[in-house]
Amino acid sequence: MVTPREALAARRKAAGFSQERLAAHLGVTTGTVGRWERGEATPEPPTQRRLARALDLTGVQELLELLYPQKSLLTAVDERVEVRSTGSRAGQPGRDPRRAVQTGHSLDRVHGVVPLVRRALDAFDLPDDGPTRPLVEISADVARANEHRLEARYGALADALPDLLAELARAGQVAKEGLQQQQVALLRALALRAADGIAFKFGYLDLSGRLIDLMRQSAAQANDPLLVAAAEYVRTETFFASGDLSTAGRALLRAASALSLSNLDDQHVAAAYGSLHMRAAVVAGRIGDPHAARDHLHEASEAAKRVPEGVYRGTAFGPQSIRIHELAVATELRDPVGVERAATWHPSAELPAERRSHYYIELGSAQLDLGHHEEACVCIEMAREAAPQHTREHPQVKGTLAALLQRRPGNSRVVELAAWAGARAI
Q1: Each residue of 384-397: pLDDT tens digit?
Q2: What is the superkingdom listed in this entry's lineage (predicted)?
Q3: pTM for this structure?
């Protein structure tokens, strides 16, 4: 069976282009064209128009239908646009002196957009008049929004959300019954998840709870059990915010048990099942139950053997994600052996930036607890290199830096990081 991206390569050859010639024609690298054809990247909108003309297509709509067939809307959203951090992963990362200014500006945009997101939710059943594109085009924007979330580009995500949510509300009004309504519900659920990616992290907990409830409703309307499982994974944030960890554990276990009746040999089912246990392990660690944490990690690890590292229904899962959560559990349990074991490994640059930064944030906190102050500082720098916007706003980072300011007063690296993150000595 020819995949959409294989069809793109075939169309390129039919138009008489090698990868090298097409790259030169579009002003991109040969590697970029290769990533498009391997499904690792998506052309940006300005390039889409030029690419469509080069391939003798009738327009962007035909190109999008080639990349994202209507029957594969969910696959389109799960695929990730290839825009990556390129910093060093070993030693002290290089720093762009402009980054603090750029990051601050991006984060200001997030706070400015929150009222617009609230307004879009208020008008979900009464959306403003406006254009409503074909779902295949909307799906590309939903995919891009979730890529911004995964790569911790919160300013860009905030810019996209109000119009995207409003258009999805209009799409729901005009959708015909049956499959089309389910497709709109699917895209709406994933767009709501993208919105929660900034609401929860920036402390808008009431908005986060509302978004999660709407995501759960939309996932149920989409009639997709795996999307329902993803919504339950995200729902854990509500219990983290309230401190009700026992209910969080029960909710995750119930969702995982429902999936256990499905075919776990299917990669997407295995990824959803493993993600729920992966998160349940962290909940158990936070409660202080090492036996439950170990059991959940075992279930997640078994599931990870069935799937490559990737993004499934908007959640990163695979062997590397398991390693990162093993560290999170060791940190919660104050397990120095587990922390030391985790410190010998580094996540691949192929992982989403937000998840990579989580690893270094957790490791920095653990190194602080072990009295390894220099290592803790390096970890925060590496987290910043991976995902500056995520790292700067993370409360664990502020806590680690506040403690380092007290224990290493006058250290220039600590002072610089603390000033950047807005951390103060305890």
Answers
A1: 999 999 999 999 99
A2: Bacteria
A3: 0.77
